[in-house]
Amino acid sequence: MLQEAIELNEEELVESLYVDLDQLEKKLSDLELKRMLSLEFDQNACFLSINSGAGGT
Questions:
Q1: Which of 21, 28, 25 is nearest to 3 (CA)?
Q2: Cβ 5 vs Cβ 14: under 8 Å
Q3: What's residue 37's pLDDT?
Q4: Under 8 Å between Cβ of 57 and 50
Q5: CA-based angle 40:29:2, to the nearest 5?
Q6: What is the 3-state secondary structure (H, E, C) of the chain?
Q7: Chain-centroid distance, C-alpha 39
Q8: How confident is the model at residue 57 (pLDDT cuts 50, 70, 90)?
């Protein structure tokens, strides 16, 4: 549909499709994060330790 709109020079439709695509990408990103954080042990706490070393971390 997007390719057809581009070929027909339908600027308004192309812009609308890009907006829809951006919204879908955001929803997909949110769903992927929820899926990654919904496993059995994901509700447990964790500790993160950062130690500096060569390179100035």
A1: 21
A2: yes
A3: 81
A4: yes
A5: 145
A6: CHHHHHHCCCHHHHHHHHHHHHHHHHHHHHHHHHHHCCCCCCCCCCCCCCCCCCCCC
A7: 19
A8: low
Tokens for 40?
Answer: 């059995």
d(CA 19, CA 22): 5
Q: Per-residue pLDDT for 15 more than 70?
A: yes
What are the tokens at 15?
Answer: 């812009």
Model pLDDT for residues 29-55, shown as the tens digit of each residue: 999 988 888 887 777 788 888 888 876
